[in-house]
Amino acid sequence: MINQCLKDDDDVKDRLPIKTDGDDLFHILDDGIVLCKLVMVVDPEAIDRRAMNIGASLNAYQIGENLKLGFSAAKGSLGLKLIGVGPTDFMKKVPHLVLGVIWRVIRQIAVQNIQLKECPEIMRLAEEGETL
Q1: Between 116 and 44, whose confidence is greater?
Q2: Closest Cα to residue 109, out of 49, 13, 7, 37?
Q3: pLDDT bracket for residue 125 (50, 70, 90)
């Protein structure tokens, strides 16, 4: 999903495609750039691209800023509840915490176009008494 969503993004083209075998994903996500870009796929207005630190050799402060920016946007704009996980977990590459956050963002991407207008079949799920 990440490879597909960000395939045309010039800021991350040197990081993609992410290999599905091994721990490549954790190394790609540790500086916050891909996290910010994924949040921007769901809500393009969530993060001002000019606020992001983009480059190959970022220092710890810049990485921290990117991760804080991504987490703030995920919590604020996307409304995700990220309890017990923070930017340092991405820097330390804690697998279960990183995967938990990325799963929530990717789930938002996957379901963002599921609307009654786009999928009228959803009305079949309406319970008795519910209308459009």
Answers
A1: 44
A2: 37
A3: confident
Q: Which of 11-20, 72-81, 114-123 has the lowest mean pLDDT?
A: 114-123
Total-model pTM: 0.82
Residue 40 pLDDT > 90: yes
For residue 121, the SS3 value is helix
Q: Which candidate, 13, 42, 23, 21, places its Cα nearest to that of 98?
A: 23
What domains are defined for the chain?
2-125 (1.10.418.10)
Give the three-class secondary structure for 118. Answer: coil
Q: How many helices (H) and strands (E) does the chain have?
A: 6, 0
- Rounded-to-integer distance, Cα 66 and Cα 80, Å: 17
The residue type found at 42 is: V
Phi and psi based region of residue 12 (left: phi greater than 0; alpha: psi -120 to 50; beta: remaining): alpha
